[in-house]
């Protein structure tokens, strides 16, 4: 693609979003020359091939450096003007690191704690600034992606063109979101330019995968564009009885009859097969995690099917008003059997008793967001006023049964044993409605930007719990309402430095049921004070950001081992009050000498202010005070002897933490190393243009230490090596 096209596309895209984004992109272009985009798509040029930016949070980026997104304000806003800590995982980062899970994709972002539950391909569970965001902090295309119980939507990284991360309470615009912030997963969208890619992969544990990504105009005359992304994977994992199979397809279409109107339809369907449990047996007598699989390979299937279809509509009436409506319908079904070894057999010490269970869950959700953006002036002040109303309707149904499995034989630990059929004993159905109305004004005066916004939510939950054995029904109804707000002030200097200060709150209803009390969860409330600085270095494609924060939260959800009538279980519980204070710094750069780098450090002091006896004043389990990560990718010069060859390397430091809230178990600190090597065959001959070989290794030195969270212990995921051969044309 000619370099002139690379420079023009960002200007067209930014103009659709507003003059502030246009000015920043133009400024970024003026700071240095842009690289050409090759047919293989590997460059540091601005990633702006999408037909329309919309309000789904699409990232304007240059290599590893995010410049603007709608994630922080629901209208495309330069990161320098967003009065809150914000990060991006750009499309180029995803290509270079080839993550296989959402946790892999987030591993190098500041304050993101991944791996707290060790090896577990079932869920994308993680914390930010010490707070769990698994249920309330994951958004898809700027719309809430709900979760309840074990019903959590799985994310296929190949279906993403990036991730935007807004840290801290953010309910002033988004409603149901937690104290840690939100992660906006941005789906691949149709492109103006023709895009064709096929790829095959082979890796550790007999991993076979094929994938494709096609996009472009439907024909030469109609303003209709398409994208079709898919993959098929057959794979085992490091744990016997736990596969990692997936089929995934994601169609998308955009209709753009004129420059003022666009409609994008986004769809997805996937089927994933893995295990009902992936844990190793934890010997409570020795306090150590063994190498014995705690489950039963013959009774350990988990099949999850999920689908979603939604749209993003935008129409600009004139220079003042823009209307948007984003909506999505999604459904998820998970059917799983599991077994769990928990204690030595009283008669034969070579056997370990195992409990067993089965569950069938379904989650249906409808989310719709209506927005009106108004751009106007009042004297010397420029306003971007956003008003909106959004609705979330959620229905969660869970069938659950508990039983026993034959004991684990430590002399033959990989043997599968037949389990007698287990009937469902409990049925839970929860219906939840949430309606929120919000208003935000971005007021600009000279180099100052004042962002002020507020939102009011009404939430209604009805929960029916049926004891199928006793044939009894318990109904609980709950109504919640709350105001959330944010106010922030930013000042942008002529040399790209932008200090800011902000205060924000969050209010999040919680789907699901507290199995210990058989009551629905109370809403989680939080507030944050934050001060920080962002610096887009002049004449260098480099963004550095730093922040100090203080977050108070009450009624948060966490997992703990609780003794239920059916036996010990690792379930969600609510705590009284938590406080997180800390500091984080991040740097991202993509230079024209072939070097791209991302680096982050975070310090988090996370304590229990109010909670169970014996925990007040203690540190929250599995939240390290120190974390750091660095990843660099370097491609050798095109005119040198190693033309076409490139290397990547990364290190992730996870500091020590406590393994329970009583602070009697301690997780040791560790450093995990990742690496990559890639080669573009076009360096041999132009007839191979678009052909690229890449090998990625995660946890290169196979460090597999125990990690404990909420009093239960796991083991780090071991080394994985994946080779991929990609062809673009």
Note down, in words, how this protein is organized.
It holds the Pfam family Plug. This is TonB-dependent siderophore receptor. Keywords: Cell outer membrane, Ion transport, Iron, Iron transport, Membrane, Receptor, Signal, TonB box, Transmembrane, Transmembrane beta strand, Transport. There is one protein chain. This protein has 729 residues and is mainly beta. It is built from 5 helices and 43 strands. The strands form 9 sheets. The chain has a 22-stranded antiparallel barrel. Helix 1 packs antiparallel against helix 2. The protein is globular. The N terminus is likely disordered.
Key terms:
43 strands, transmembrane, 729 residues, mainly beta, 57% strand, 5 helices, 22-stranded antiparallel barrel, disordered N terminus, Plug_dom_sf, five-stranded mixed beta sheet
Which helices and strands, and how do they pair?
Elements: H1 3-17, H2 19-30, E1 60-62, E2 65-69, E3 77-78, E4 86-89, H3 91-97, H4 102-106, E5 112-113, E6 127-128, E7 131-132, E8 138-140, E9 143-144, E10 160-167, H5 171-174, E11 181-187, E12 195-203, E13 207-217, E14 224-234, E15 245-258, E16 261-274, E17 280-283, E18 288-293, E19 302-316, E20 321-344, E21 351-378, E22 381-409, E23 426-445, E24 448-467, E25 472-491, E26 497-508, E27 513-514, E28 519-520, E29 524-536, E30 542-554, E31 557-564, E32 567-574, E33 577-590, E34 595-610, E35 626-635, E36 645-654, E37 657-658, E38 666-667, E39 670-680, E40 691-698, E41 706-709, E42 712-715, E43 720-728
Parallel strand pairs: 8-11
Antiparallel strand pairs: 1-2, 2-3, 4-10, 5-6, 6-7, 8-9, 10-11, 12-13, 12-43, 13-14, 14-15, 15-16, 16-19, 17-18, 19-20, 20-21, 21-22, 22-23, 23-24, 24-25, 25-26, 26-29, 27-28, 29-30, 30-33, 31-32, 33-34, 34-35, 35-36, 36-39, 37-38, 39-40, 40-43, 41-42
Helix pairs in contact: 1-2
């Amino acid at each position: 693609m000619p370099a002139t096209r690379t420079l023009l596309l960002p200007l067209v895209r930014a103009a659709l979003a507003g003059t502030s984004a246009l000015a920043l992109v133009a400024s970024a272009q003026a700071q240095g020359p842009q690289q050409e985009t090759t047919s293989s798509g590997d460059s540091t040029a601005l990633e702006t091939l999408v037909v329309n930016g919309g309000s789904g949070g699409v990232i304007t980026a240059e290599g590893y450096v995010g410049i603007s997104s709608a994630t922080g304000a629901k209208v495309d806003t330069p990161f320098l003007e967003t009065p809150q800590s914000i990060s991006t995982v750009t499309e180029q980062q995803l290509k270079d690191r080839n993550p296989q899970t959402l946790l892999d994709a987030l591993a190098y972002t500041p304050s993101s704690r991944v791996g707290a539950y060790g090896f577990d391909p079932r869920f994308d569970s993680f914390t930010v600034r010490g707070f769990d965001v698994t249920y309330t902090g994951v958004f898809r295309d700027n719309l809430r992606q709900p979760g309840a119980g074990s019903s959590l939507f799985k994310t296929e990284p190949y279906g993403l063109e990036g991730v935007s991360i807004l840290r801290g309470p953010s309910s002033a615009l988004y409603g149901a979101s937690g104290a840690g912030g939100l992660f906006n997963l941005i789906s691949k969208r149709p492109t103006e330019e023709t895009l064709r890619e096929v790829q095959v992969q082979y890796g550790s544990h007999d991993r076979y995968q094929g994938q494709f990504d096609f996009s472009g105009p439907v024909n030469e005359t109609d303003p209709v564009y398409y994208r079709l992304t898919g993959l098929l994977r057959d794979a085992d994992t490091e744990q016997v009885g736990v596969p990692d199979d997936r089929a995934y397809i994601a169609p998308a279409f955009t209709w753009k009859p004129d420059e003022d109107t666009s409609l994008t339809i986004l769809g997805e369907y996937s089927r994933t097969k893995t295990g009902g449990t992936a844990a190793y047996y934890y010997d409570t007598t020795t306090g150590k995690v063994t190498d014995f699989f705690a489950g039963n390979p013959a009774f350990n299937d988990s099949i999850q099917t999920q689908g979603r279809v939604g749209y993003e509509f935008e129409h600009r009436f004139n220079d003042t008003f823009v209307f948007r409506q984003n909506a999505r319908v999604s459904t998820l079904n998970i059917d799983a059997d599991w077994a769990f070894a928990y204690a030595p057999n009283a008669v034969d010490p070579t056997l370990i008793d195992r409990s067993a269970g089965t569950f069938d869950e379904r989650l249906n959700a409808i989310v719709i967001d209506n927005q009106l953006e108004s751009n106007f002036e009042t004297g010397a002040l420029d306003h971007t006023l956003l008003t909106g109303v959004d609705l979330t309707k959620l229905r969660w149904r869970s069938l659950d049964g508990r039983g026993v499995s034959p004991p684990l034989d430590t002399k033959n630990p990989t043997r599968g044993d037949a389990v007698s059929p287990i009937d469902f004993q409990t049925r839970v159905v929860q219906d939840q409605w949430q309606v929120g109305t919000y208003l935000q004004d971005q007021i600009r005066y000279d180099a100052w930007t004042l962002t002020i916004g507020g939102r009011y939510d009404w939430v209604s939950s009805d929960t029916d719990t049926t004891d199928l054995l006793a044939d009894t029904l318990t109904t609980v109804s709950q109504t919640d309402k709350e105001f959330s707000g944010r106010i922030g002030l930013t000042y942008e200097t002529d040399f790209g430095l932008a200090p800011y200060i902000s205060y924000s709150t969050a209010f999040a209803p919680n789907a699901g049921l507290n199995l210990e009390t058989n009551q629905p969860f109370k809403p989680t409330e939080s507030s944050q004070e934050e001060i920080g600085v962002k610096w887009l270095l002049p004449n260098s494609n480099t963004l550095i950001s730093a922040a100090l924060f203080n977050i108070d939260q009450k009624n948060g959800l966490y997992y703990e081992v609780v003794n239920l009538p059916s036996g010990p279980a690792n379930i969600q519980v609510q705590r009284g009050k938590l406080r997180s204070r800390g500091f984080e710094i991040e740097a991202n750069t993509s230079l024209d000498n072939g070097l791209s780098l991302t680096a982050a450090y975070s310090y988090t002091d996370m304590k229990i202010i109010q909670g169970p006896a014996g925990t007040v004043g203690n540190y929250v389990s599995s939240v390290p005070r120190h974390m750091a990560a660095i990843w660099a990718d370097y491609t050798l010069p095109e005119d040198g002897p190693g033309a076409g060859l490139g290397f990547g390397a990364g290190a992730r430091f996870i500091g020590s933490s406590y393994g329970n809230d009583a602070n009697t178990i301690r997780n040791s600190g560790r450093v995990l190393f990742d690496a990559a090597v890639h080669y573009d065959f076009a360096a041999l001959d132009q007839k191979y243009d678009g052909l690229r070989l890449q090998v990625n290794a995660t946890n290169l030195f196979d460090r597999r230490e125990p990690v404990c969270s909420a009093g239960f212990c796991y083991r780090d995921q071991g080394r994985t090596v994946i080779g991929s051969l990609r062809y673009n044309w």
